[in-house]
Amino acid sequence: MKKYILNIWLLGCLGLFLSCNDLDGKYDELVPDEYHKILSIKETGSQEVIMSVEEEAYEYQLTVIKGGLRKDLEANAFLEVLTQDEVDVEYNDKQGTNYRVLSKDMYVIVDEAVSILGDETGKTIRVTFKPKKIYGAIKEELMSNMCCRYI
After folding, report:
1. Are the C-beta atoms of residues 140 and 91 closer than 8 Å to each other?
2. Rg (CA), the chain
3. What are residue 65's phi and psi, to 5 degrees?
């Protein structure tokens, strides 16, 4: 019985060795090109921040992380905010929420064009919010009895 188990184990190891040997180090062929470099934002989901209308500006930081099969490649992207229609389709309609997109005069994305060099793993992007303008929009919405959340 021990001979059969040993023979089966040896055949299994030989099969694994031969199947891995077929690639000859060309692992890139297993992964599609679009997964060779991936950029993602570390802070996901809903982020609660506390701002004061007494502040002229509130600075928030996003971390863009580089991943994928070829992390040594340079990666470039352009950060942009979803439109109200996109938020309605992707979030409000599906989750029963009433989120509103901040207008462009309420924030500034510093360095919208992100470039992460081959030897870098990520970058920090600053977003500057204008609390007085945001508060004004929220106050206006409350006065018109439309309950919503700004994102």
Report:
1. no
2. 25
3. -110, 140
